[in-house]
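re: ur question from earlier - yeah i can do the single chain one, its not a big deal. heres the input i used so u can compare w yours
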Amino acid sequence: MTGRPTSPTVQVLAPLAGTVVAAAEVTDPVFAEGVIGPGLAILPDEPADGARVVVVAPCDGRLMSLYPHAAVVQVDDRRAVLVHLGLRTAQLDGEGFGAVVGNGELVHAGQPMLAWSPAQVRSGGRSTVSPVVALQARADDVLRLVGPGERVSEGQPVLLWS
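and the output i got, formated as tokens:
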């Protein structure tokens, strides 16, 4: 058999509960135009008491980039998944965010990875819409399992990346 070798399909889980937003509707063009890869976004549920929300790993892999507001999980030599909490949140210098694991650590799908306060982010005038992106993937290789407006639970499969 010839052609590129096949790798197992990666199932990407919702890192937090909320309502699915189409990537094209995200107000940041990097995500809306798929510049860094295809995906979707989640408008997170916010606890009534303003408590922090735990964000789980979207798949098995190694945390290759970990910031208070974002994480990249490297799945294998060609695939990595970005979880970005809110928009323009890097400017907050970690205020309202916290890491549960360390950079370079192995994580398993569904394992707590970050924590944040969507209410605190929103009170600062920023969007809490959180993109989940298959970095540098071809759009044809990523299947969305949920559509805009659908509610997802933390840990629910949302993308398949072949």
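Residues 1-5 have pLDDT under 50 and may be disordered. not sure if urs matches, ping me
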